[in-house]
Amino acid sequence: FFDVNQVDDGAQFEIKWYALNVDGQDPSTPFTTSDYSYNGESTLYANISSTDPSGFPVAQYKVEIYMDSGKVGEQQFSVQ
Q1: Are 61 and 18 in contact (CB under 8 A)?
Q2: How far apart, in whole angstroms, are the C-alpha atoms of residue 37 and residue 31?
Q3: Long-range pairs for 16-23 at CB < 8 Å and ≥24 separation?
Q4: In this predicted model, what pLDDT tens digit does every residue of 28-77 receive, in sequence order?
């Protein structure tokens, strides 16, 4: 989740998800993206689900947040 303030309604957000150390995954290419159109919320929630029944591989990951094509934040996290 991320807090939003002083943003005009209709602003476009794009969330990019990266696997930083998963075999066969380029760490500079997002493995999935999500798009959101802002409509006044103070907090936006972004989540993804694995298509693999065993879940996401144990690894380091990163999520980047873009607003109107400009990067406004990023966070690394790990799945253990």
Answers
A1: yes
A2: 21
A3: 16/63, 16/64, 16/66, 17/48, 17/61, 17/62, 17/63, 18/61, 18/62, 18/63, 18/64, 19/57, 19/59, 19/60, 19/61, 20/59, 20/60, 20/61, 20/62, 20/76, 21/59, 21/60, 22/57, 22/59
A4: 999 999 998 888 888 888 889 998 899 999 999 999 999 998 999 999 99
